[in-house]
């Protein structure tokens, strides 16, 4: 150890994700919105679940979501369908979009996601 190092507290190591979260405050904002951190689980609202689903999927994919088309409570959290632009084309109606199903725990943390559909932006679903 160099002189004077023993007086300074050791910094916690941060992974790239933790560094990014610290920079934008997203994890801290989620924790603050969830409660005091006493260990008790707090179910987030549907509005917050929509926001968290879009935000965390963007972190993983590196693409900004266009919309959240569905949000549903589940027994252990939330499920949301998020629409993402995967391939931009000209004209825009031929751009490739994707629907991702995102699963969140009660506190709004992403636990799983999967792409459930790919389609062109101008495509309309058939009536059932």
From TrEMBL:
Matching Pfam families: GvpO
Residue stretches of biased makeup (Basic and acidic residues): 18-31
Region ranges (Disordered): 1-43
Superkingdom classification of source: Bacteria
Record protein name field: Gas vesicle protein
Protein species of origin: Streptomyces lunalinharesii
InterPro entries in the record: Gas-vesicle_GvpO (IPR008634)
């Amino acid at each position: 150890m160099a002189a004077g190092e023993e007086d300074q507290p050791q910094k916690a190591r941060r992974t790239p994700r933790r560094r990014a979260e610290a920079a934008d405050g997203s994890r801290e904002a989620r924790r603050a919105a969830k409660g005091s951190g006493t260990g008790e689980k707090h179910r987030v609202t549907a509005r917050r679940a929509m926001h968290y689903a879009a935000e965390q999927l963007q972190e993983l994919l590196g693409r900004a979501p266009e919309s959240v088309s569905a949000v549903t409570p589940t027994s252990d959290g939330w499920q949301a369908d998020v629409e993402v632009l995967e391939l931009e084309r000209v004209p825009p109606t031929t751009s490739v979009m994707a629907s991702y199903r995102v699963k969140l725990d009660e506190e709004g943390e992403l636990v799983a996601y999967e792409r459930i559909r790919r389609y062109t932006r101008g495509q309309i679903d058939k009536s059932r």
